[in-house]
């Protein structure tokens, strides 16, 4: 069974001590808060990203008509920053999360497990692979230990995220499957787990019974949750940084 670039975990199994693992991992975890871009400017429309669209007079006129018809200014006035996803510190002030969490957000900040709020900026995001790298202000958080092997099918894992906007909640399950998701644009493999996931868990870290990061939560359906293997997330983050340097 393919597991990206990492081999399967053949070490002797470790019985999970979930309370201890959660306590160890929390200092590396963040809750990500954002505020949607305003509807009235049309910037949250996917077409807005097409080169030349922003300067197109026809697009500007159509946006004004739609804003009036749908009463967007009134809706924009209700916007507020809210916790939308999770993330995990990996190096210095850099935090890994998933791309769909930062897409369409006007402003970002994070809350640490210690309750501290910090401003954040997006270094870059890869939508097709659902990986994003952000940078936070202030002192670096302790990086999460990263596994050099991937858990085998049936092994225990724990996900930490912000379900329903509640940061730093945990859910446990097992590795269900490795494979490609036809619903995603990326041809890469994902890891399917059974840890309980709802909206807000996206971007959260999945750890094995040794407390090592093995993947990032992408999205869930039913009892299954699709996650991005940690080696692939790190590789995409490295590509993002190289593009920024250029």
In the CATH hierarchy, the architecture of the largest domain is Beta Barrel
Integer-rounded radius of gyration: 19 Å
Give the SSE order as H and E letters.
HEHHEEHEEEEEEEEEH
CATH-wise, what's the superfamily of the largest domain?
A: Trypsin-like serine proteases
Proportion in β-strands:
35-45%
What percentage of residues falls in helices of 4 or more residues? 10-25%
**What separation lies between the terminal Cα atoms?**
36 Å
Q: Assembly state here?
A: single chain
CATH domain fold name of the largest domain: Thrombin, subunit H
Which stretches of 5+ consecutive residues score pLDDT under 50? none
Record field, number of beta strands: 12
- Give me the secondary-structure category: alpha+beta
Main sheet properties: 6 strands, antiparallel, barrel
Model description:
This protein is of the alpha+beta class. It has three domains: 18-25 and 145-245, Thrombin, subunit H (Beta Barrel), CATH 2.40.10.10; 39-76, no CATH class; 82-136, Beta Barrel (Thrombin, subunit H), CATH 2.40.10.10. It contains five helices and twelve strands. The strands form two sheets. The chain has a six-stranded antiparallel beta barrel. The longest helix is centred in the C-terminal third of the chain and has 16 residues, at 230-245. The chain is globular, with a radius of gyration of 19 Å.
């Amino acid at each position: 069974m393919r597991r990206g670039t990492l081999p399967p975990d053949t070490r002797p199994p470790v019985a999970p001590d979930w309370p201890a693992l959660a306590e160890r991992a929390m200092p590396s975890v963040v809750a990500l808060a954002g505020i949607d871009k305003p509807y009235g400017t049309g910037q949250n429309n996917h077409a807005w990203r097409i080169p030349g669209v922003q300067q197109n007079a026809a697009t500007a006129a159509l946006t004004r008509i739609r804003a009036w018809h749908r009463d967007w200014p009134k809706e924009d006035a209700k916007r507020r920053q809210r916790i939308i996803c999770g993330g995990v510190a990996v190096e210095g002030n850099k935090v890994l999360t998933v791309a769909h969490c930062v897409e369409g957000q006007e402003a970002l900040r994070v809350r640490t497990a210690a309750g501290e709020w910090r401003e954040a900026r997006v270094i870059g995001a890869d939508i097709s692979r659902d990986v994003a790298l952000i940078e936070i202000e202030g002192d670096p958080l302790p990086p999460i230990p990263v596994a050099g092997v991937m858990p085998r099918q049936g092994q225990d894992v724990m996900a930490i995220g912000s379900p329903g906007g509640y940061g730093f909640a945990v859910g446990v399950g097992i590795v269900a499957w490795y494979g490609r998701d036809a619903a995603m644009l990326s041809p890469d493999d994902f890891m399917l787990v059974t840890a309980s996931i709802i909206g807000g868990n996206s971007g959260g870290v999945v750890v094995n019974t040794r407390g090592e990061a093995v993947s990032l939560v992408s999205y869930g359906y039913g009892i299954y949750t699709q996650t991005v293997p940690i080696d692939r997330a790190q590789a995409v983050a490295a590509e993002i940084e190289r593009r920024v340097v250029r």
